[in-house]
Amino acid sequence: SLMGHSYGGGIVQAMAAVVPERVLRVVAVEAIGLFSTHPSQFTSTLRDNILDRDRGLNLQTYSSLEECAARRAGQNFVGSMPEAAALVLVRRGTVAVTGGYRWSCDAAVMRPGRQRLPEPFVQDFLRGIKCPHACVIATDGLWRRAAFPGFPLFSMQWRVLVPLAYAVAAAWNWVTRLGRPLVPALMRTSPTASRIAFIYHQLCRRWACLRRPSLIRMHTGGHHPHLTHPDEFLAALAPWLAASSSSQPRRVANN
Questions:
Q1: What 3-state class would DSSP assign to 54?
Q2: N or C: which end of the chain has fewer CB within 10 A?
Q3: Could you give the C-alpha distances from 161 to 16, 20, 204, 210, in angstroms and in order?
């Protein structure tokens, strides 16, 4: 059984597709596939990775874990988070040094990806998952901006609305940008058409690639519900774990 969070969730999903005989079940927390890149951005992304060697090299020393948490809460890729939740993360992501604390993570994780897969490759991984598969998402998590009012993420109504919105966005992009590619992006500052393209390609179509996935929703927890709300996380996941354990025959693969 494999469980992964965020990028780790994409990794365990890929493993389940590549070696299905060795994986009983998969739980992906706030994840649905690996990061991908638009073909028009492949060269520029590789260039950014090679040239941006100093990104993330924050060697500042903080006087306390609370000071680390305040910075983590305010400068967070997935949006702001409560300092109490950030404190849970910094306790695992800092190291004590003379005079206080420093981040312990590899600075390379802050650099642009060197070689991200094209989106069709990621979707092929997802189609290859044959074992029981659960996705855990929080309403206030990574994709909170991908839900429409009254249409929860991955609901049937949402899956009907998203392709319609994408068709309109793609047509508008073709007319206003003279046929230039519509590059998916979900950042807050991204154009509306790019955000819709991201939701369609990297959420809606990816979800359609999965075989009978189980969706487990949490009302709160942010992008790290397993760390910030562990009791609620376990309570939400336990019924699926019990059901998938009883229905899945035991398999043993020899090395």
A1: coil
A2: C
A3: 30, 33, 10, 19
- pLDDT at residue 254 in the model: 46
Give the span between the Cα atoms of 67 and 53, in whole angstroms: 26
CA 81 to CA 52: how far, in whole Å? 27
Cβ-contact 203, 165 below 8 angstroms: no
Residues with pLDDT less than 70, the chain: 52-58, 75-80, 107-114, 188, 246-255
Which residues neighbour 1 within 8 Å (Cβ) at sequence distance 6 or greater? 23, 24, 25, 26, 27
- Separation between Cα atoms, residue 138 and residue 227, nearest integer Å: 12
List, in order, residues 6 or more apart from 143 with CB less than 8 Å away: 30, 137, 153, 186, 203
Identify the pLDDT of residue 93: 86
Count of alpha carbons within 13 angstroms of residue 253, beta-carbon side: 8
End-to-end C-alpha distance for the chain, whole angstroms: 16
Match 């074992």 to its residue by tokens. Answer: 131
Q: CA–CA separation, 203 vs 57, rounded Å?
A: 32
pTM of the model: 0.83
Instruction: Give residue 253's pLDDT.
Output: 47
The number of beta carbons lying within 10 Å of the beta carbon of residue 188 is 7
Do 237 and 243 meet the contact criterion of CB atoms below 8 Å apart? no
What single string gives the DSSP state of each residue in 210-229? Answer: SSSPEEEEESS-TT-HHHHS
